[in-house]
Amino acid sequence: MTDLALTHFTPRASARNMFDAEPLFAATGLLIGLSLAPTLMAMAMDPRDFLGENVWLKPVKFQIALTLYLLTLAFFARWLPAGITRRRSYRIYSGAVVIAVIAELVWVGGAAMFGIASHFNVSHPFMQAIYSLMGAFAVLLTSATLVQGIAIWCNRQTGLAPPLHLSIALGLVLTFGLTLIVAGTLASQSGHLVGTPVSGSTVPLLGWSREVGDLRVAHFFATHALHVLPVFGLGATALLPRRWAVPAVWAAALTFTAFVAASFAGALAGLPLVPDF
Predict the structure, then answer these.
(1) Is residue 134 left, alpha or beta, with left meaning phi > 0 and alpha meaning psi from -120 to 50?
(2) In the chain, where are the structural domains located?
């Protein structure tokens, strides 16, 4: 395998490798992606709104996010130590992760079906009771990035160039660490906004408030460390001399962490990432 490694995979070969390396994550990610079709149909046919958005928009976002998450893990699984996915302990663990993913989707989709809030729903006894359980499931499913990140970091037989190898491992580990801090704080709040919006101005598509602090901003970036850093690592491997590429990856990881921390601190202070001037 060449230094660039990732650049030589055709879509067909890459898909085949995902199913060979981590068939459970790959299959579940594919099925969740396919389940978008009926959810989008429901969104088109159901005119109900909740807090100014179609009731099915949140399930759609979760399906897209979890599809991307599982397929990314299945993609990176090819660089896990040989034989690790065939161990009984790993199969039990990965099965538990998939159960957690499905539980999250059922929770959010069920709330949409009944037109109620899935998160921060203090007015509905059942949803309030299940909130802590869903938080535990969220930690479980996110922990897969930590498990993969450490395993890939320790695997010296990946065939990857050192900067790319490091960037994948760091991206996975930081996804867990940053998400745990941000999501844990978010879950302890009464809502994702810090402050009271007046006009309801938001960032298009993403829906982040442009008037007050929005903790979803830091959460979004934290959960995408596993994508951002490997892309940087691929670029550093291709464009920088080898002696500079690894330090550049470390610098990128520190910069990304600082950015997430700054967006998180800003939101807690009631400041929007993209102000509405």
Answers:
(1) alpha
(2) 1-160, 161-277
